[in-house]
Amino acid sequence: MTRYKARIAYDGTDFAGFQIQNNGRTVQEELERVLAKLNSGHPVKLHGSGRTDSGVHALAQIIHFDLPQARDAEKLRFALDTQTPDDIDVLSLELVSDDFHSRFNPHSKTYQYRLTTSRANNPLTRRFSYHFPKIVAFDHMVAAAQLLVGTYDFTGFTASGATVEDKVRTITQADVVRSGTDEILFIFSGNGFLYKQVRNMVGTLVKIGAGKWPVTRVSEILVAQNRDLAGPTAPAHGLCLMEVRYDDEINA
């Protein structure tokens, strides 16, 4: 068997998430359908660097899969890209060693959340940005986000459906920046994120930015490890997986 690694992008609006499930169309399902066609009808199991929830987008999701024989990487990429639906793009593809695993090889992820603050919602960004025009304490959001940087138990920012027991994660970047006059970007990098963690952190920061909570609320949530203290889960459509970087790439 020959192992391939690919970088894909997708508009998550019409997907029930990345991973195959019973309640809707998924990115994995669409890709595996095309891979089976390219593999003479034989099923091909695809693995991703992680799941994205229903409605969440990706600019650089990483996947891997095995085929019985070596193929020209660019021809295979082109075949995948042209036969998948328009809301999925296969950006790059390469042969990798048999021990590469998109999920289990050590890596970091970067997520970006877009917030539109204009008085009226913009119809051209509504599928990819959460409209919230009531930010009055931008600097407080910036300061509060920095309190998330470090290694902590993020139980307080985890949704109730989380299945993992170890909720300790390391966040290396938590920036809140303006992009133009009517957009705010929340950028988070770390060695892994829990179920809906990024959206729960954004929901908390937005409450702080709206002047409802003090900056110290973030520290209180981390100490108490109580989800009830955190803000609402920000809508999925504002979130995008921007980058997945493997440790061997960083150290190369």
UniProtKB/TrEMBL annotation:
Active site: D53 (nucleophile)
Record's keyword terms, sorted: Isomerase, tRNA processing
E.C. no: 5.4.99.12
UniProt key word Oxidoreductase: no
Entry-linked InterPro entries: PsdUridine_synth_cat_dom_sf (IPR020103), PsdUridine_synth_TruA (IPR001406), PsdUridine_synth_TruA_a/b_dom (IPR020097), PsdUridine_synth_TruA_C (IPR020095), TruA/RsuA/RluB/E/F_N (IPR020094)
GO molecular function, one term: tRNA pseudouridine(38-40) synthase activity
Binding, substrate: Y111
Pseudouridine synthase I TruA alpha/beta domain location: 8-105, 144-247
Transmembrane segments: none
Record-linked PANTHER family: PSEUDOURIDYLATE SYNTHASE (PTHR11142), TRNA PSEUDOURIDINE SYNTHASE-LIKE 1 (PTHR11142:SF0)
Task of the protein: Formation of pseudouridine at positions 38, 39 and 40 in the anticodon stem and loop of transfer RNAs.
Family according to the record: Belongs to the tRNA pseudouridine synthase TruA family.
Assembly and oligomerization: Homodimer.
Name of the protein in question: tRNA pseudouridine synthase A
Organism the protein comes from: Pseudolactococcus chungangensis CAU 28 = DSM 22330
Organism classification: Bacteria, Bacillati, Bacillota, Bacilli, Lactobacillales
